[in-house]
Amino acid sequence: DQQVKQNSPSLSVQEGRISILNCDYTNSMFDYFLWYKKYPAEGPTFLISISSIKDKNEDGRFTVFLNKSAKHLSLHIVPSQPGDSAVYFCAAGPHSGGSNYKLTFGKGTLLTVNP
Amino acid sequence: ETGVTQTPRHLVMGMTNKKSLKCEQHLGHNAMYWYKQSAKKPLELMFVYNFKEQTENNSVPSRFSPECPNSSHLFLHLHTLQPEDSALYLCASSPGQNPRKLFFGSGTQLSVL
Question: Which chain B residues touch A104 with a CB distance below 8 Å?
């Protein structure tokens, strides 16, 4: 059973508008969340993260919101740019680190930003 | 350049072949990982190495054999694979003090015929 779900396989938005990518999780032990971005023929690259002690984290055009009671997080991109077109992966992990730390990934959402 | 280099980028092999995937990281990280990405599936963790020691084997079939000779190099030896093993294989590394932040290579797209 998937513990991290990205229910929208794809999303298309106009340049300049807001992109909202959603992610749901089921494991209550998760308390650290990340978004990765992947271009074709490249590996995923880290985009932004949030700890469960916060409900919002912002980095330039990218903001991640966390709703712990709903076990839901979202990534907002404002304004969207054509270069943002990529697959976005949501990932989650438990609080403690160490050598056995594991991230659980969603299936990804393909974002297309149209000029 | 992400600092994590994977070769080859593409590999086609028959079910009776033996091949190896190579990963090298230039970031001074202590941990290295193999992930598998199949079509329309989440990234699946396969193996974790921390300071050259394997710390995780996520129930991976024995036809996949990892090797980590040092903290900078990671191999995945492949033998008698099945067509369903066709996927993108991603190597990643992380600083020992922050295993959450993974740095990925570009991957090897593997096709098993």
Answer: 42
Long-range Cβ pairs for the range A28-32 (8 Å, 24+) = A28/A71, A29/A94, A29/A95, A30/A3, A30/A4, A30/A92, A30/A93, A30/A94, A30/A104, A31/A94, A31/A95, A32/A92, A32/A93, A32/A94, A32/A95, A32/B100
Phi/psi for A43 (5° steps) reads -80, 165
Residue B56 scores a pLDDT above 90 = no
Which pLDDT band holds residue A74 (cuts at 50, 70, 90)? very high
Confidence of residue A16 (pLDDT cuts 50, 70, 90): very high
Choose among B100, B103, B105: nearest Cβ to A101. B100
In sequence order, which residues have a C-beta less than 8 Å from that of residue A47 and are 6 or more positions away? A34, A35, A36, A37, A62, A75, A88
CB-CB under 8 Å, A89 with B43: yes
CA A59 remoteness from chain centre: 13
Q: Which of A42, A104, A108 sits opposite B106 (nearest CB)?
A: A42
Q: How many helices and strands, by DSSP H and E, does chain A display?
A: 0, 11
Residues A114, A15: Cα–Cα separation, whole Å: 6
